[in-house]
Automatic annotation (TrEMBL):
Belongs to the UPP synthase family. InterPro entries: UPP_synth-like, UPP_synth-like_CS, UPP_synth-like_sf. Homodimer. It comes from the Bacteria. One of its GO terms (biological process) is polyprenol biosynthetic process. Catalyzes the condensation of isopentenyl diphosphate (IPP) with allylic pyrophosphates generating different type of terpenoids. Keywords: Magnesium, Metal-binding, Transferase. GO terms for molecular function: ditrans,polycis-polyprenyl diphosphate synthase [(2E,6E)-farnesyl diphosphate specific] activity; magnesium ion binding. Substrate binds at residues 28-32, 40, 72-74, 76, 78, 191, 197-199. It comes from Wolbachia pipientis. The keyword Translocase does not apply. This is Isoprenyl transferase. NCBIfam families: uppS.
């Protein structure tokens, strides 16, 4: 993080133009592991360390909302041994007192979205605990999308609307039924790993978000790469169809 303290690098960004809400598709963990001749779980472990570094970077840059795509609905199709390892890794994070303490020291509030009920019971319990523990924090709102699918999110919202016999609804009202109801509009969506698609992530929310794709695999992603994405965002003109 030391380079953030170098005035030249830091001041290249116009803080008044920074996005309020950034989302990241953290892609490339498996390919990184393969290149390193390591197992996939090693790639995810390295990726989780990178995630915390990026979270710290967002705190330093005073970005108020960060959403990370950790596990999609489609990821359930992976071998059970792999999903078990992923949830063991998530459980280890949630029960790591040092990690959670660091989050609190950074004034971070944790928020999980997705079909959480599909997760192992032990993970669900720990999610509830850390959400409660960090609920008093008012700094960065860190949202982690787990067991999340945007199509499923929209269908779920429609189902709730039908159940409540709501016949007339606006876009603003509809958004109150989404998992992201407590989040502002998405400004910037970053995808690492070289792929150029949304992969069922925040489809409604990304309607007018700026998209930034980079070839860097997630375990190699750094605050320097994030700053580059933010710099490009600040020079784009957002017209919203006008």
């Amino acid at each position: 993080m030391s380079y953030l303290l170098k005035k030249k690098t830091y001041c290249n960004i116009d803080n008044t133009c920074l996005p309020k809400h950034v989302a990241i598709i953290m892609d490339g963990n498996g390919r990184w592991a393969s290149k390193q001749r390591k197992t996939k779980i090693n790639g995810y472990k390295k990726g989780s360390k990178v995630a915390f570094s990026i979270i710290e970077c967002c705190v330093k840059l005073a970005i108020p909302y960060l959403t990370l795509y950790a596990f999609s609905m489609e990821n359930w199709q992976r071998p059970q041994s792999e999903t078990n390892e992923l949830f063991n890794l998530l459980y280890s994070f949630l029960t790591d007192k040092n990690q959670i303490s660091s989050m609190c020291d950074l004034n971070i509030k944790l928020n999980f979205i997705g079909n959480i009920n599909l997760l192992p019971h032990s993970v669900i319990q720990e999610i509830k605990k850390v959400e409660e523990l960090t609920s008093i924090n008012n700094g960065l709102l860190l949202t982690i999308a787990v067991s999340y699918g945007a199509k499923q999110e929209i269908i779920n919202a429609i189902s709730v609307i039908i159940q409540n016999n709501i016949n007339d609804i606006s876009e603003n009202e509809f958004e109150k039924f989404l998992y992201t109801k407590d989040l502002p509009q998405l400004d910037l969506l970053i995808r690492t790993g070289g792929e150029k698609r949304l992969s069922n992530f925040l489809l409604w929310q990304a309607a007018y978000a700026e998209l930034y794709f980079c070839n860097t695999l997630w375990p190699n992603f750094s605050c320097k790469h994030l700053i580059k994405a933010l710099q490009e965002y600040t020079v784009r003109e957002r017209k919203y169809g006008r």
